Amino acid sequence: MTTLIIGGSGFLGTELIRQARAAGQRTAATYHATAPAVTSEAAWYRLDLRDAESLAVVIAETRPSLIINASSGGADWATTAEAPVRLAMTARKHGSRFVQVSTDAVFSGTGRARYDESCLPDPITTYGVAKAAAETGVLAVYPEAAVVRTSLIIGHGHSTHERLVHQFIAGTTDGVLFTDDIRCPIHVTDLAAALLELAENGAAGVRHAAGRDAVSRHELGVLIARRDGLDAARLAAGLRAESTLHGPLDVRLDSRTTQHLLSTRLRGAHEFLAAGEEGNHRSDQTVA
Length: 288
Description:
CATH topology of the domain at 2-154 and 187-211: Rossmann fold
Strand order of the largest sheet: 3-2-1-4-5-7-12
Number of strands: 15
Structural class: alpha/beta
Helix content: 25-40%
């Protein structure tokens, strides 16, 4: 069994490779511009997702039984909206399982706070629109694929939010953390394990994989600072609603339905940050 991680050089992709390898899977991975420093854990391929011919070459050489798209193309329509559909079509043609990683940015955060898998996307940013389009396209061409929405990904001090917290406290970067911007952060080890498990289980359609706790970006920053022994009082607070940054405010992914399919426990930020990030937790009991 070969698992192909699209975007393997990224934060989530790196963890997916580690866990796939630990499970004894042959692993291939792609990067866009810069080759990863450590190449021993996977067979690496440079890939521009907008290039259909390059994608065909990678698939032909790797012959994957599973493809996970963990790439991040930002607001670039060709990469974020169109390329996942091409990936899904290719996966179906070759009989590969396909998992598309999506985001809570497909929701507006207005009118309701808690979003389960039955909620229809209503994005208000260019990125959210592109990811929502990818979701629709992927499931249209490959209904057996899994589209897994997630939230802020945290872990091991390497995430964007964790680095930002350290920069704010050190005074190397100016800015505030919003108290009205609510998400359900997830630990990167939990998310990677959930994605691999959903693929193994043959889960299809839209799934939510986020942490149990709904916290503001400021509260999350405080939790990170306390874990790392830093002075959380140095983190300035502000309101996103009063800023010039456009985007959804309160988006809480409800992952209870997906949790019942998993032995991987999707922990909340209060637990995995207070626990010193002990890694992925598995339990025979699903979380209600």
